[in-house]
Amino acid sequence: AKNSGKNQYQVYNEQTGNTELRKMELQKDMQWAIEAGQFYVVYQPKWNVQTNSLVGFEALLRWNHPRLGVVSPGEFIPIAEETGLIVSLTKWTLNEACRQCKKWKSRGCVNPISVNISIRLFQTDTLINFVKDVLEKTVLDPHLLELEITESMVFLDIDDIIRQLHAIRSLGVKVSMDDFGTGYSSIGLLDRIPIDSLKLDRLFTNDLETSSKRAIINAILLMASDLNLDVIAEGVESQEQIESLTQLGCNIMQGYYYSKPMKVEEIDPWIKSRVL
Ligand code: C2E
Ligand code: CA
Ligand code: CA
Ligand code: CA
């Protein structure tokens, strides 16, 4: 390789240097990026295999950085969490997703929209007010909004989170537990945390040939059914996966098999291609 003349230490340093610089650039530019209109939302469909119909969309954030191009949320969300910008970013995303959902509703499409909510939002105790404000401003039926939260919140003051979730659900807004099964297991909290559904992480929904994975999914599905929770399988990429999951009793799918997250204008053509 071209770098073979340099020793490992130098190469390593160069790489971390670049990563640090990139992070600093993102951190600095993010402050203006909302106002500059550089963020946009893409939508990934959720599909019910049993009824063969669309049952909702997940809103996923993208940042079109002027110099670096499209930056993924896996990279900029942690930075936004560190700087605190996650609060205004979430506000913006919620508003954008609800506005879009309202638009679809007025055209007769009654599928709910899910928005990812970082646990940081529960620490400031302002989430409930955001949600109320956005629903009022966009005049969206609260039942059409769902918040996706992650298991990692079990580290925070759980009683306080439960209180906030109850308040949010009392508005009619739904709550889903994202990436279920990957975190520090909140299974023990499932009967206390007020949620409506679970999203099975991609790690669980691939390689379903291994019997241990099937056993785990089976157990999760049984438990979810007892607790009256819907289960959504994430990261579904193949027909075989869909067959295994439906055999096990999971009927709601999300993944590249159906569609990658789409820009608004790509959705109509996609829907037309599905019903043909
Ligand atoms: P997530 O909530 O688990 O979202 C699912 C991720 O899996 C998305 O990545 C989606 O594009 C990807 N995905 C969907 N189907 C497939 C598939 O079949 N195969 C594979 N390999 N991947 C699939 P994305 O959009 O890059 O988002 C990454 C993470 O960033 C999200 O994971 C979520 O935790 C976070 N995120 C995205 N948007 C927001 C946001 O508005 N707010 C917050 N707080 N976090 C967000
Ligand atoms: Ca999610
Ligand atoms: Ca997930
Ligand atoms: Ca994830």
UniProtKB/TrEMBL annotation:
Residues 23-275 form the EAL domain. It comes from the Bacteria. This is EAL domain-containing protein. The chain holds residues 390 to 665 of 666 of the full protein.
